[in-house]
Design goal:
Order of helices and strands: EHEEHHEEHEEEHEHEEEHEEEEHEEH
CATH topology of the largest domain: Spore Coat Polysaccharide Biosynthesis Protein SpsA, Chain A
Number of helices: 9
Mean pLDDT: 90
CATH architecture of the largest domain: Alpha-Beta Complex
Strand content: 25-35%
Shape: globular
Strand order of the largest sheet: 10-9-6-11-16-13-17
Number of strands: 18
Length: about 350
């Protein structure tokens, strides 16, 4: 883990470089200074994601994304005092400043208590698909059980979530579900708890949610069983909760470059020519968080796809949010994706 000094960036730094700093330092914060090297505010993962939604250009400066009202201290604190204060305010960092607003330290809850706290939230992994585009690999193997760097895709998903405190998993099964159930059993070999939902007929990309036990009281994560990502499922869940969302969808930037010069006209008059413009849009990344009340909007064991579910949520004016991801993300949809994923994990 890096020193807190490595997290200090000038406010003219680009969003892209701030993301790289967060990924490298692992401290979950950037300490921002002005041109006089005085404290200007903080930047967290959530701040960056909100900034990306407003402006997808990662080359703009972090100035507008900086949180100016970050809680700071001008006096030295004992570790126990700092930890108690962070718990009270539900924050993970307290910058330590001198009287001139120069940064002289950083109290970090992540360092004061290294224990991973188990989350009550469940994670539902959709693993019932046929994986037809991955034939012949899926002729005798369910797609989520295909191996990436020696482990099934499903195992990578579970272990990544476990690192963030998730221990309660639900796996929806259909095609060759017994292979998955025989491999993971109750999850005890991985130090987690796994229950299974069995789709008698394919229920689409959202229908299996309707089979969840209605006694679940916390928001839960849903992920496709063919998505490999370095996303922090805990941060995603916290984002969903802190923003009061009914439903949250992880989204990813997709760039599509027009191979031609685009001519803009006003009637017959040419007013501009843009050479090979790049269109930036957001695509569904296949990871979601829902409040338990989502079960009221699904009919049990009835086919439903995720786009239709979100349209229904929006029609009822329930709050749905996008959570832009900048982490590594791979959708294992075809043999090329499978080969690329193995190469990426072998190089990691």
């Amino acid at each position: 883990m890096s020193s807190w000094k490595d997290t200090i960036l000038n406010h003219n730094t680009s969003i892209k470089d701030a993301i790289l700093n967060l990924e490298k330092s692992k401290l979950q914060i950037v300490l921002v200074v002005d041109d006089k090297n005085l404290f200007d505010g903080t930047l967290t993962d959530g701040d960056i994601r909100r900034a990306i939604l407003k402006n997808p250009d990662l080359n703009v400066s972090i100035k507008k994304a900086v949180s100016k009202n970050a809680f700071c201290t001008y006096k030295s604190l004992k570790n126990s005092e700092a930890f108690q204060l962070m718990n009270q305010k539900d924050i993970n960092h307290i910058p330590h400043l001198d009287k001139d607003k120069k940064i002289i330290g950083l109290y970090q809850r992540i360092n004061l208590n290294n224990e991973v706290i188990n989350r009550p939230n469940h994670m539902l992994i959709m693993a019932g698909g046929f994986g037809k585009r991955l034939h012949p690999y899926t002729s005798n193997c369910p797609k989520p059980m295909l191996e990436i760097s020696g482990k099934p895709i499903l195992e990578h998903i579970i272990l990544n979530a476990k690192e963030k405190g998730f221990i309660n998993f639900i796996i929806s099964l259909h095609f060759m579900g017994e292979v998955i159930e025989d491999y993971f059993k109750d999850g005890s070999s991985l130090g987690v708890k796994i229950n299974y939902l069995k789709e008698r007929e394919p229920l689409g990309t959202a229908g299996a949610i309707s089979l969840i036990d209605s006694s679940i009281s916390d928001s839960f994560v849903v992920t496709n069983g063919d998505v490999l990502t370095d996303i922090d499922y805990g941060d995603l869940t916290d984002f969903h909760t802190k923003n009061g969302a009914f439903a949250t969808m992880a989204v990813r930037q997709h760039e599509l470059q027009n191979p031609f010069g685009v001519v803009k006209t006003n009637g017959m008059e040419i007013i501009d020519i843009e050479e090979k413009p790049i269109n930036i849009s957001y695509i569904n990344a296949g990871v979601y968080v829902f409040k338990p009340l989502i079960l009221d909007h699904l009919k049990r064991a009835q086919h439903c796809d995720m786009p239709d579910l979100f349209k229904k949520i929006n029609k009822k004016n329930l709050k749905s949010l996008a959570y832009p991801i900048h982490e590594r993300w791979m959708d294992i949809g075809n043999p090329t994706d499978l080969n690329n994923a193995n190469k990426a994990f072998d190089e990691k």
